[in-house]
Amino acid sequence: MWFVYNLLFTFAYLLMLPKFLLHMRRRGGYRRDFGQRLGHYAPDVRAALGSRRRIWIHAVSVGEVFVAKQFMNAWRMRHPASSFVLSTTSSTGHRTAEEIVEAGDVLIYYPADFPAVVRRALDAIRPAALILTEGEFWPNMLRQCAARGIPVAIVNGRISARSHRGYRWLRSFVRRAAEGLRLILVQTADDAARWRDLGVPAGRVVLAGSLKYDLAPVTPAAVAAARASLARLGWPAGVPVLVGGSTWAGEEQALLDALRALRPRFPALRLVLVPRHAERRAEVLGSIAAAGFTVRCKKEMAAWPEAGAGAAAPDILLVDTTGELRGYYAAATVVFVGKSLTQIGGQNIIEPAVERQAILTGPHLENFPEIAFEFDAARALLRVASARELAESVGRLLDDPAERAALGARAAELVAKKRGALARSVAAVEQMLAEAAGEGDQT
Predict the structure, then answer these.
(1) 64 given a catalytic annotation
(2) Do 61 and 164 share a domain, yes or no?
(3) Which of 64, 251, 351, 389 is catalytic?
(4) I want to staple 24 with a disulfide (CB 3.0 to 4.6 A). Which of 31, 194, 254, 325 is the partner?
(5) Are residue 149 and residue 44 in the same domain, yes or no?
């Protein structure tokens, strides 16, 4: 069974190499430290890893990085001397993680799941525990951790219906691989049922709720920085600002169409575009130019003319940097959350909800089925099915400040009501580590 998995994994990895090489070309940060994915670390990183045993927490990309940040901050509140190894898979997540690690933490890329690579990584890291965020787990890593007595937990765990169907074809192997998981803290009852159906003992699966609901409001400094950049553009305080957050291909065009349709009624309306992948900058700029709007890029802010220096205020701000979205959510009048109109999956709607914002999405929130259901039930967001409906809904909200405020208030109240998963998760991981330590003492 393991031989077949490793053979297939090697074959799949080789097939993915062209994609890796393309990422290296498009994303400057992807090439940097690529050797870490094969368990090779620079001398300074290896020295830092060897300086003490840490909890290793893995976050695939940006969304999981923020979940990891929540867990790390809450853990440090109870264990101030703690430090972490934080790993990511995506380079976008890595750039975001660079902003949250503290002195004493070590940031790396997650190793590929080859047996030799996993052994090298574990030899270098020597983790006291491995915490996986949300749902990604790799069989060789779990097997090696189990052999070394390293406890492994999943926090904020979820498993989609689609993934569950796929895993069921490999149920015997998944059950064997999951033996390396001591604790799976899941978001919903459906997630718990799917894990149990795959053969994971019920005692290891705990319904904790979604950590995303425990998201803290964005810092005042981040909000101030976002507002300052809008003022620097020459946008007066109080002008209506539509923010398109975590947008994917096709959604920027829908927002540009909405801006064009609404400008006759709201001539002061401005648009902030924050693509999910900043490397799509050239593509998005091309769409803006074709639509006939003026734009400035956040990355070039140092070269912007001072407001009032004779330069006309642009129609659009393109945020082609990472880690600033939540500040712009807080500064928005209306928010559209992407990967929901022209793509399937959805992005985190809780981030603007925490800021009491009126939220619009497309019909697709498959990555957050339980959260989407709860927001729909609470009438805490509006879903649109087309660019035309997007423009109509934005216009209605701009026309009706009371409806806009009520929509944002319902979203914030739902988030407040659903908090608590973070404290439950930290307590459960503490118990897991205590039990692991007790087993070690007995041996």
Answers:
(1) yes
(2) yes
(3) 64
(4) 31
(5) yes
What's 339's domain CATH number? Answer: 3.40.50.2000
5's CB contacts (< 8 A; 6+ apart) are 139, 140, 173
> 3-state class of 275 per DSSP?
strand
DSSP state letter for 312 = P
Residue 214 counted as domain residue: no
Relative to beta strand 382-383, strand 205-207 is unpaired
Instruction: Give the largest Cα separation in the chain, rounded.
Output: 76
pLDDT digits (tens, 9 = 90+) for 351-407: 999 999 999 999 999 888 889 999 999 999 999 999 999 999 999 999 999 999 999
Under 8 Å between Cβ of 421 and 269 = no
- The closest alpha carbon to 36, from 132, 106, 131, belongs to 106
In this structure, are 238 and 191 located in the same domain? no
Q: What is the pLDDT of residues 182-194, one digit of tens each?
A: 999 999 999 999 9
pLDDT at 99: 87
pTM of this prediction exceeds 0.70 = yes
62 and 109 inside one domain: yes
First-residue to last-residue Cα distance in the chain: 30
- Report CA-CA distances (Å) from 132 to 72, 152, 181, 307, 424: 12, 8, 10, 46, 16
C-alpha triplet 8, 1, 202: angle, nearest 5°: 110
Burial category of 12 from C-beta neighbours within 10 Å (exposed 0-12, middle 13-18, buried 19 and up): exposed
Strands (E), 82-176: 84-88, 106-109, 129-133, 152-157
Give pLDDT < 50 ranges for the chain: none
Q: What integer pLDDT is reported at residue 34 of this predicted model?
A: 84
Length of the chain: 443
- Is position 215 within any domain? no
Number of structural domains the chain divides into:
2
**165 and 130 co-located in one domain:** yes
| Edge-to-edge strand list for the sheet holding 183-186 | 106-109, 84-88, 55-59, 129-133, 152-157, 183-186, 205-207
Q: Do residues 293 and 336 share a domain?
A: yes
Q: In terms of domains, do 383 and 430 share one?
A: no
